[in-house]
Design goal:
This protein is of the alpha+beta class and about 575 residues long. Helices cover about 25% and strands about 30% of the residues. Strands 3, 7, 8, 9, 10, 11, 12, 21 and 24 form a 9-stranded mixed beta sheet that branches. Strands 16-14-15-17-20 form a 5-stranded mixed beta sheet. The two termini are about 20 Å apart. The chain binds one RNA strand of 77 nucleotides through β8, β21, β24, α12 and α14.
RNA sequence: CGGGGCGUGGCGCAGCCUGGUAGCGCGUCUGCUUUGGGAGCAGAAUGUCGGAGGUUCGAAUCCUCUCGCCCCGACCA
């Protein structure tokens, strides 16, 4: 295609509204424009990326046994009332009434619609399993849209739903979708990990998030150096940490004055001990009720783990006043010995020897505190955040914390929706049973943004070839004196004949502008035809990612391009 | 929704405190020159200063209301 005919409004300067790099580059390189908060127009270049990604998704979903359909975006409130989500979903669900005063909403997701469709049309185990998906624009009235395509209100999503006759079938389907997702993101040329995600109340190992690795990601994930273990920080576990002072005989409990020493750092420095020797006592409010939580001094509480242990809907760290009121002790001097609160502790605490804790009175701490001898807790559980000092729970190798962008999420739903909406079929014995469901999402537009977060440099985007808007761009540097347009046309035809998407920069612009725009737009390979061809008979073929450059004769252009693309 | 900030030509900004008829860079248009990393010269166009009220002889500037957008927090693909 010709640059001069396409709408590619590149910008020399970064618009002030764009905070993250993918947003800045999508705007500057002429891929998107904002219509209103969290809502973007996809210009021709962006649409080409989306179409390429979607094609990969469609192929791999088909291989995974899923079939595509397209569900309505406008959905009746009654369906959402059946599932209970009309009440639960909150203001993120954009609701409205039509001229007949019928309540409706814009679909943020389609469990209700698909469950309704299947219950009306699938009645026998003979028809199962069914795995259905769509690629569609979703709307969620996010409180605060930001980061361009990373978190818009309107976004493109692939959402799939499976219906199986039993648990075993649902698990097999889940596995197939997991494999399909691995193939999809691998084919896109993205560095990613499938991580075990927190499954909340459902439990089990049937939720995975697919995270594109990027420093700018919103989520922290833990990955193993040695094996393929990877988990969301909310869920990550590790081998037990070495115990400081292991083997020491329990010493006599001793109270020491620590005036004004409140923080872990202050206390351990004052007493000349390692933070690993200190038991940190934090007060959390679990649905409003205070609970004391013990972790080693150098560890942090993982709130989601705590929340799951306590079965609470919400946990938050109590503020100083709430701590004083609940425990009767100022912050900084709390400890488990004689604590009047409910106490839970991290597993590591149980094995600590001759530890330091607050004395539950101002300006004093206790030395030589030993769990079991000096205090007991209601429950020991894994409550802490994994650190880079920890070891992989599977293989014992080192762990790395890294940032990721969630681009896919697969989830075993079980019968939650089929029960709420009475979606049943008849099994071989003629008994009515509820469908066992799964759901599988991919943030399609978000993945495009994530790809940029992961693949860019100071000059612009560096597209992975499989989702690049074009495979190759050819710069026509013709001037009045040196016309090479015929040569360019020939090269374009050759490249197109090899099945490559070609963007020809045929604009009447100076070379510098074309080079800058080509770098900004990020097409993987660039072919430059200028007066050098006329003087040397050669054209330049250059790879965007690493600047690898070949000077080749006309006959070698296609091979050079193909070579640099692999 | 709570907290912070911003709306001035297509983009990036100054002017506002201390009212006096709007300016800079880039971009756009015309002509000539130039043409391998965002050109030079000459000329030109483009603003209801987000909107509505008010104060004032006079409002981009002060006051009130309103709309939109951005950033931080709770939510999420």
């Amino acid at each position: 295609m010709r640059f001069s005919e396409l709408l590619i409004p590149t910008l020399k300067e970064t618009p002030a509204e764009a905070e993250v790099v993918s947003h800045q580059l999508l705007l500057r390189a002429g891929f998107i424009r904002k219509l209103t908060s969290g809502v973007y127009s996809y210009l021709p270049l962006a649409l080409r990326c989306l179409r390429k990604f979607e094609a990969i998704i469609r192929e791999e979903m088909a291989r995974g046994g899923a079939q595509e359909l397209l569900l309505p975006m406008v959905q009746p409130a009654d369906l959402w009332r059946e599932s209970g989500r009309w009440r639960k979903y909150g203001p993120e669900l954009l609701r409205f009434t039509d001229r007949h005063e019928r309540e409706s909403c814009l679909g943020p997701t389609h469990e209700e619609v698909i469950t309704d469709l299947v219950r009306m049309n699938v009645h026998s185990y003979r028809d199962l399993p069914k795995n259905l998906y769509q690629i569609q624009t979703k709307f969620r009235d996010e409180i605060r849209p930001r980061f361009g395509l990373m978190r818009g209100r309107e976004f493109i999503m692939k959402d799939g739903y499976s219906f199986d006759a039993d648990e075993a079938g649902a698990e097999a389907t889940y596995r197939r979708m997991y494999d399909a997702y691995m193939r999809i993101f691998a084919r896109c040329g993205l560095a990613f990990r499938a991580v075990e995600a927190d499954t909340g109340t459902i439990g089990g190992s049937f939720s995975h998030e697919f995270m594109v690795l990027a420093d700018t990601g919103e989520d922290t994930i833990v990955v193993c150096h040695g094996c393929d273990y990877a988990a969301n920080l909310e869920k990550a576990t590790c081998r037990p940490a070495p115990v400081v002072g292991a083997g020491e005989p329990p010493a006599e409990l001793e109270k020491v004055a620590t005036p004004g020493k409140r923080s872990v750092a202050e206390v351990t420095e004052f007493l000349g001990v390692s933070p690993k020797r200190l038991i940190k006592t934090l007060v959390y409010l679990a649905d409003g009720d205070p609970v004391a939580v013990l972790v080693r001094g150098d560890h942090e509480v993982q709130p989601v783990k705590l929340q799951n242990l306590l079965g609470a809907l919400e946990v938050e760290l109590a503020d100083d006043a709430a701590v004083q009121e609940a425990a009767g002790v100022p912050v900084g001097y709390l400890g488990p010995v004689g604590c009047r609160l409910r106490v839970v502790a991290d597993l590591e605490v149980q094995r600590m020897v001759n530890a330091v804790t607050g004395a539950n009175e101002p300006d004093a701490h206790l030395r030589n505190v030993n769990p079991g001898r000096d205090f007991t807790v209601e429950q020991y559980a894994d409550l802490r955040m994994v650190t880079e000092e920890d070891r992989c729970p599977r293989c014992g190798a080192g762990l790395r914390l890294t940032r990721g962008i969630e681009v896919g999420h697969i989830f075993k739903l079980g019968t939650a929706y089929s029960e709420a909406m009475e979606a049943t079929f008849l099994d071989a014995e003629g008994k009515q049973r509820h469908f066992v469901m799964g759901c599988y999402g991919i943030g399609v537009s978000r993945t495009i943004a994530a790809a940029i977060e992961q693949n860019h440099d100071a000059d612009g985007i560096v597209w992975p070839a499989p989702i690049a808007p074009f495979a190759v761009t050819v710069l026509d540097l013709s001037t009045r004196k040196d016309n090479v347009s015929e040569v360019v046309d020939g090269i374009v035809q050759d490249l197109a004949a090899s099945g490559l998407d070609v963007l020809v920069d045929d604009r009447n612009e100076r070379p510098g502008i074309k080079f800058k725009d080509a770098d900004l737009i990020g097409i993987p390979v660039r072919v430059t035809v200028g007066r050098r061809y006329l003087s040397e008979g050669r054209v330049e073929v250059r790879r965007r990612r690493d600047g690898e450059t070949l000077n080749v004769e006309l006959a070698g252009v296609v091979d050079a391009v193909l070579g640099l693309l692999t």
